[in-house]
Every structure is written in structure tokens, then in C-alpha cells.
């Protein structure tokens, strides 16, 4: 299905927004009924260990877009990753799902048609231009500034463009909050490839930023602006990457931070910037580059030639005995191999089966779970999404590891902003859990 011509955009500009306008009253009534019929039901018990353990397992958030099952993995509005690969629209010449289709699914709970995904591609491309002051801000940022710092800085600075902030100041009725949150979110998502591309080209290349194509989809435009648009496999990788990294229910740091700040009625720009700052932490989105660095260090120490499984096993044990963790393995919720890892592995088996780093990743997949099980200090010895993504990017020449989390952030916008729109539509209140002191725990009987 070719993308919709720009001349047709005015007639379809509000297709997604109009569908949301139909769904919002239905969902509002559904939530009212849930609160009336089930409001007093207990979701679970909270223990002192859970509080000291980072609130692990405490059910305290509503998140419509996705649900993470410990054994099954992530589902987006009920669809697994293989379901999404089969059911969501793909590009005319591609196989992987378009991130546009995933965003439509997250917002509406419905699988879009190819025409609806194409409409989103056109709308995002039409909204993608950066204000001159954002370009100047990024162009003047020192190359020594971390790409994630630049990313957060640019998104925060874009807040001056917020329609929600403007109409809130003017006194708009709260029933309209979601509409302006939608407009801000669409504008922000549309501009992220240009922000990411400018950061990449300024920091690592010659500063020349390719133009967004008004007739290309989101994944194609991201690949193009990074300088890899002629590589069809890399374009497909970007479509897959943006889809699978988009959402992982609401309790992870980037999602929860966006939701928390948004609950204060901060606009989407400020809310998402807070999520990016959380994503930049080494225990969250920064982990993908930490994995790759560990693998490359192992390769350098063991030699570039193929090594045996026993040699890999010895190196893993060496890492554990030195007091370090094996990066990319284990997950706070999952108790099996992350389906996001699996689909990336399948992509690699299809497109780069003989890549030396991929072969090493495959050996680790064979060796590490048994070692971690024998070690006995992890509840989940299986790989997560971070164990694979960096190797794929390296293969195609995107070798600048400090940039990887920026790509993660572009993708994560789809999930957290879709939820923020629903937070506004459902009138979710400011988040304010009760805290206690250690002394209070000592007084418990």
C-alpha cells in the first residue's frame, strides 16, 4: 500500500483522533463500572520486603497498552510479538510490522488496516520539522555531551510548542485534556527521528542531516536520517526495533516516570523528558550498550577466532566470581527468555547468521542459563531484550554504543505517550503513594 499523498492529508487528518473520540466515552463508562463493581476488591498484599525491594510485585498502576506475563512475556493489547508480526501492517516491500500500526493498536486496541498505518506515516512525516531554535540548540551542543542528555534537552526545550500547556493556561475544560495531549504526542513522536538523527550526525559524523521523506514510513525515515536508508535490512530492523521496544507495561522506570510526571498535568514534552532521564540509567535503557561492551571485552580477551563453549563458560564464571553480573540476563518480572530477544535472534538467523558477534551471542544463549542456574543467585537465568539489540546494530555499521539508548527512547515514546493520552481521557489523578519510615516498620507487630 503506497503512502497517502500529501494532497489527501486534510481529508483524513483526524482519522485516528476521530476513532479515539468514539472510544473515549465507552472507556470512561467501562472504568466507572469497574470502580463501582470492583472498587473495594483487594489486588494483593504488600510486604516490607516488597517496599525495600523497589516495590517489586506491588500492583498499583493502570496501564492499558501492554501487560507483561512472567512466563509468556509481553502482550500489546493482547497480542504477542509473533501476533504483531503476523497481524500488523508491514511496508509494501517489507515483512516486519510498522511502528505506526503498533501505535494505532496501543491507542485503540484495534489492528489497523494498511491504509490507516499509511495515514499515520504521512501525518508523522508532515509534522516532523524541527523549530529553528531546536536545531540551533542541538548544533551548539558539545560533542562530549552524552546523546541521551542531548535527547532529553531537546525534548524539554520543545515544551514551548505544547498545545496542552497553552490551552490549560487559558482554562480549557478537563474533558478536552486528552485531545491536546493527543496533538502534543503526535507532534512529539513525529519530531523524534529528526532529533535523534541530528544528535547522531552532529556527535559522530559530519553534521549533515538527511531530510525526512514525506512519502516514507517511520522506520524508513529513521534509517535514512541516520545514514542507513539504502540498506533494506537495516530499514526492516528499525521497523522491528521500534515496535518491540515501544512498551513493556507501566512499572518500568521510563514508563512509570512519564506517567508519574504526567499525573501532575505536566504536558507530554516534560513528561516524556522525565521518562528519557530514567531510560538513561545503566539499570534500564543504558543496559543494551553495557551488554555489547561486555561481549566485545570477552571477544578481545578470548581472541577473535571462534572459541569453544567450555571457554565461554569459564569466562562467564570468571565474571560472576569477580562480583559482577552477566549483563543482558535476568529480568525483574520475566521468568523465561524475553520474546523481544527471540524475535531479534530470528532476525539475525535470517539476515546475519555468520556474523562473528552473533555467533558469540548464540553461544552465550546456550551456556549462560546453565551457569546462572548452577550459580543459584538469579530467579531468571534467561536473556532479555538488551542481550541482542546491540549486536544487530553493530552488524549494520551503527557502532556508536552511546547512541543506542536514543533509539530505545524514540521507540519508547509510542507506548508511554499512548498511555498518557488515556490517562488524560480517563481523568487519572495525581499519583501520590504513602511513604513510611524504617522506624514505622520496627513498630509492626
Automatic annotation (TrEMBL):
One GO term (biological process): carbohydrate metabolic process
Keyword NAD on entry: no
SUPFAM superfamilies: Citrate synthase
Alphabetical keyword list: Transferase
Keyword Acyltransferase: no
Active site: 284, 331, 386
InterPro entries according to UniProt: Citrate_synth-like_lrg_a-sub, Citrate_synth-like_sm_a-sub, Citrate_synthase, Citrate_synthase_AS, Citrate_synthase_euk, Citrate_synthase_sf
GO cellular component, one term: mitochondrial matrix
Cross-referenced Pfam families: Citrate_synt (PF00285)
Molecular function GO labels: acyltransferase activity, acyl groups converted into alkyl on transfer
Domain of life: Eukaryota
Family designation: Belongs to the citrate synthase family.
Protein name: Citrate synthase
Species whose genome carries this gene: Basidiobolus meristosporus CBS 931.73
